[in-house]
């Protein structure tokens, strides 16, 4: 049986990544692709690497017909998404990859995004899309809010530990190294090859990164009390991948055991043997997340390090995994491609 | 139905790439992996990106049992391959990815590789593995000799043109830009990141590159007279991909038409619209080859540019495509993964 | 004695490179920096790597006072330059780094740049800035037109050979690999790190690159007859450097001798031992140009390969070398910094 | 007046970097270069980027004549250095760039380097080469021990703060991102371009990195009590540069003021305006170190971020700065080259 899907915002990186993954999915069929600024073009003109695929031409969103569409993936920019999704017919289910529906509290949204939410009623119905922790709700959701890619990485490392009370909640540091495709295809000076290659620097330092809203929301909910992690993302000269080095306080063995148990049956989350730690090189272009635990020389200080691909497990792969759940398909359909190395 | 395969030399890049591709193949099962220097290790210890797969442990070649193996892929170093393959039981069919069986004439082999061939009788039986041009012979072969990755790229651009008499045989220049994984996992100073990144230089300049033996053999055979192209490979700071810019003399339209017709039904060879040309970025980690034709401002001068991934279409993807043929499977099984971009 | 200089367009890469070089020049002093879109800012805000220097604040061109300025370096965009330079006081001498004054024939300019020149009288007075071949005229020039960076690289490889009649004028191919900073700090999709890293492709294929106007003008003048080379530039994933692989027909030894003699006394042009060839890694961030000659396996076919840094010897270093000449200073002042490796 | 110097271990990256810097030094002259495995070669054969310099041929250490040499720079591998330096004539003064003399306590040396020191008497006389903090002792030293490049970066960020009691000594985390040239020219699999490019991972996690010996020694000495920082280095796909993100607890304004005052008169250490932070892109190939301070959203949590070039300020530039001091020369001689950008 074939399930028809459409992708809004298909001319961005998350849209292209989704097409790449769906290309070998056994039962999804792409029947609509929108890209307002590129409407009328073939995908091969926008993304020549998709040349071999038989895909519908890009249209505007207004031109798109949703009658036979079961799932709409939405890869539109923040703020635009909430308006577009609010206008979609109720018959379609939505997997959003923007930031618009991640924060449940409208006040939180306004605090982190600087203006009131345009679809607050819809926001209430959205399910947070961190698959492994919201599986049951995602299955039945009409609207799933894809997580921030940094927020996903940090949560995979820490969420089971906070839930289990295995670490000190007041001393959590997340030092994150992010590849550049997480910033999208935006024309910004600091994203130029000449500016980024051979460079490395922090950004949004001091607690201003919007993914902190997700950390605060989720970690506080899990802990049952406010948790405010210290989070510093860095841009590194690579295209794909996020490495989150987290510094926590607790018992290393207990931490390791907690993570091992939490992810024992997960198809995509792999806890490495104790003392080993991951590289973004080893999860590239895949839906896998590798997690390592290392004890410091000073007892009670522990590093938990997580790696995933921001475009796959951190965004489009997560979206497809959630869509599989929503459609009652095997969760791993289209997602078992091995990482690309070297 | 499942077909059992084994990979010799699985601790190199071509071995790892083959495992990556077979991981999502519908009917191949890896039952043996050899890597003499890494015997006893799990693949996850040698290639952590393959951690999620259930694979046999690495063994020595001597320990390997070939009873139930239908196809052996051989990713061993040059010179070693001919000895190992000569000792394999006759019951297994072999897809070699080394250089050992590419040249049909023992004198040619000795000229380009500097010593006599150790298995000249076996050499006579080998079929040259450029799938699109040796398809029928590959189906029935016991031993298929994978082509050089540079040799494949140049041939995809030029072979139909030489066969058709569409270009001047005495003025063919192949200026090739190769990513570094083609050199394998060898510990050489010039392959270090610090030496290669931000660098670019020619190598094997002046007609000394061994893949010239393949160009000479194949182009001369097709032309029915000796053809000696001028070939200069360059190393560029990238991991995967070969871009071959070929300079030929002929009629641009006739050249374009010849290539379009030659590859019209090929699943992996894509001729771009006239005047467009490819990037290695658009075929990365896939089995596709993109070819473009551009006329120069001076009539009669034409550029034919081809791009493929040296590890996939140039080596392990080609090997798998050939194995599919040998087993009577759909030629595209396990190979339709879209290129990874960005 | 100190010579006052000003830089127009100091917020681009060539402007910043010039500041870097002048920072250790023994007798030049920067008294004015313009950058219209960044007027009012400190250079440290635009280029944090220049933070340690005591520099004038950026102004608009209109605000700049030229009274005490001896030399104005002009790093403005094409087309803008001709208007600005035409309006400068006659008392200042000008080293232009744009394309506006490279072509002597107004018809050529219009052909390659698509519109009539706005300052044709000024154009007549400009001296082509390829230092080693226009030294005497540069010394006395009021306006020196910096060459195209690709045009410089190709000319260093071929100009003495054409002048000496050492190569066949009808079979000259220049296959050029260029790093990305040659495209400037422009916000273009193909210059993004995510698009360029791990990529390589040709551009302006077929004879449309504007630097062909310079090749045609200069090579034809030297040859005394029209010469139309075949020129294909490629973009490679590096920040600095141009490698020009040229394919010519002639006697390899004669070619080598011609180049060796031509550059014997040049401080910045180094001809490598016969058979060796250069890497852009070995001239990076310096004013040196390395040239190699290699004979092909087929007698009469020869490769001449040249490498230089597009921002230094290909642009700002050339400009400073020319300014030194104009001011009667040692030509190497401020330019003897060794290449940065690795 | 000219000062003669020699470089032992000139075929490694720190040796080559030193030659690059000395090439434009006003009064140092290189009279000897050793490289045992490359003895007999010209530097241009080992490092083609130094082709334009008139340098002595490489010799073995045994062949080197030290009679007229004032300063010997030693870029030999660890363990080798202590034996070689112990055998040098007393007449020469030594700037060591290895790890051999960094730790004052022989027990510390044995703990971190796994065997007893071979020259413990010499070790006692060595001065730790962190120029800004050991200036007076360096001036008169016979043997200066160059610091670890990571150790230098962390100390520039934190040392004044520990000395001033401005931060909590029990909660200091140093998350460091290091480019690959710090690992030298060693032929190791993880240093290959194919393995490192598009990768990022931690190493020596958990308190095993040898530079911790320096942190412990220096920070404890400054604090007057044991200080054991938590230190995690990461390898990123770049060639030059170290970015140290340090997480400390204290008052952000006091921290900023302490650093500003400490480095107010330093020619190479630049404290950025409050709230700004550095990039390795902006200090590349220079002797500058940029430091930024940012307050976290939670009062009392502060990030201090430092960037320097491991080969220059972290090694060879530091060595030259120390040699200048030892010779009574201006400390900045040969070191004022601006960073290379882009």
Automatic annotation (TrEMBL), chains A, B, C, D:
This is N-acetyl-gamma-glutamyl-phosphate reductase. The gene is argC. It is an enzyme of class 1 (oxidoreductase). SMART domains: Semialdhyde_dh. Catalyzes the NADPH-dependent reduction of N-acetyl-5-glutamyl phosphate to yield N-acetyl-L-glutamate 5-semialdehyde. One of its GO terms (cellular component) is cytoplasm. Its EC number is 1.2.1.38. It catalyses: N-acetyl-L-glutamate 5-semialdehyde + phosphate + NADP(+) = N-acetyl-L-glutamyl 5-phosphate + NADPH + H(+).
């Amino acid at each position: 049986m074939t399930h028809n899907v459409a992708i809004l915002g298909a001319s961005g990186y998350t849209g292209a990544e989704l097409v790449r993954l769906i290309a070998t999915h056994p039962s999804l069929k792409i029947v609509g692709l929108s890209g307002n600024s590129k409407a009328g073009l073939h995908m091969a003109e926008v993304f020549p690497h998709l040349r071999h695929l038989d895909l519908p031409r890009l249209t505007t969103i207004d031109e798109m017909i949703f009658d036979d569409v079961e799932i709409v993936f939405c890869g539109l920019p923040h703020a635009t998404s909430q308006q577009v999704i609010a206008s979609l017919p109720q018959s379609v289910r939505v997997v959003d990859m923007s930031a618009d529906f991640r924060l449940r509290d409208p006040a939180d949204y306004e605090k982190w995004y600087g203006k009131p939410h345009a679809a607050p009623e819809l926001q209430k119905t959205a399910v947070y899309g961190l698959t492994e922790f919201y599986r049951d709700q995602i299955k039945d959701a009409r609207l799933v809010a894809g997580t921030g890619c940094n927020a996903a990485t940090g949560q995979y490392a820490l969420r089971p530990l906070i839930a289990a009370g295995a670490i000190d909640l007041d001393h959590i540091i997340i030092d994150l190294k992010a590849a550049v495709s997480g910033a999208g295809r935006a024309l910004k000076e600091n994203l130029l090859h000449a500016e980024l290659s051979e460079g490395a620097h922090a950004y949004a330092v001091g607690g201003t990164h919007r993914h902190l809203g997700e950390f605060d929301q989720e970690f506080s909910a899990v802990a049952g009390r406010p948790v405010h992690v210290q989070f510093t993302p860095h841009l590194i000269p690579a295209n794909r991948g996020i490495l989150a080095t987290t510094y926590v306080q607790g018992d290393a063995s207990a931490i390791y055991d907690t993570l091992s148990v939490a992810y024992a049956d997960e198809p995509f989350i792999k806890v490495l043997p104790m003392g080993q730690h991951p590289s973004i090189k080893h999860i590239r272009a895949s839906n896998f997340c590798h997690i390592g635990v290392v004890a410091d020389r000073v007892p009670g200080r522990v590093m938990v390090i997580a790696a995933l691909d921001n475009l796959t497990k951190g965004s489009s792969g997560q979206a497809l995994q959630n869509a599989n759940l929503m459609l009652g398909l095997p969760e791993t359909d289209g997602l078992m491609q091995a990482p690309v190395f070297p």
